[in-house]
Amino acid sequence: AQKITQTQPGMFVQEKEAVTLDCTYDTSDPSYGLFWYKQPSSGEMIFLIYQGSYDQQNATEGRYSLNFQKARKSANLVISASQLGDSAMYFCAMREGAGANSKLTFGKGITLSVRP
Amino acid sequence: GAVVSQHPSWVICKSGTSVKIECRSLDFQATTMFWYRQFPKQSLMLMATSNEGSKATYEQGVEKDKFLINHASLTLSTLTVTSAHPEDSSFYICSARRGISNQPQHFGDGTRLSIL
Prior knowledge:
Chain A is mainly beta and 116 residues long.
């Protein structure tokens, strides 16, 4: 089974509106972390937000919030007040365990296009 | 500002050439760095985990003799693509993490490698 699943092929949103990017994960490790990264066309990977498996509250970072539903194993990214600069590829990733060599596993990514 | 520097950002060279890519953590010591490969419109695929002072751990299917990794110091890891061929053309991106657990991995800006 895939560890990280991002099934939305591409998303469009009107500028200033909110958008939700879906991510589901699969793990049997009780300790894990979930990450969202943004990759614009220039290629760099930009860290957006983190959610730990033991965190009680949903993570928020500015316009980004993570809708963490542990029982459903989902970690959807919500971007509020979309901006044209939000157009990019978005990757959900998971790290299992907490060791120094614990690896990030990425989903396939979702392309978000913000319309003016 | 950037916390991981990757150089060069773009390489075009002839088939049979060896290409070295450097990855530096700028303001922290990284005992572990990660090397990824990404094809257009696809996700990041982990190639290897680089540990300072020891041999890298390669993912299944990645040729160790083709992709040489050296992690000689706590701030520098290098990836050398030996005797590169057109099928090695790709986007290579490194990352490093401060500490463990909930710290995000910071990524370099990537290297676009084109083998003619």
